[in-house]
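User:
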Amino acid sequence: MLVLSRKTNETIKIGDDIELRILEVKGDTIRIGIEAPKNVDILRGELVQSITETNTEAQTLDASLFSQLTMKEQ
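Assistant: Predicted structure:
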């Protein structure tokens, strides 16, 4: 993991076409602007984690329900 320190209005470049800009630092909150091509998905980490957990839970429930349904048919 690369760890950098940046001040307001400083940037970080990722490849040729992604730029992160520190917009504001207020207490323990940092506002970041991201410039990237439209084909690049940008998602908050906690959102991805929540979706992953929900999908895992749904698969578990589906497998459990499927097992119950197949037992009833026998």
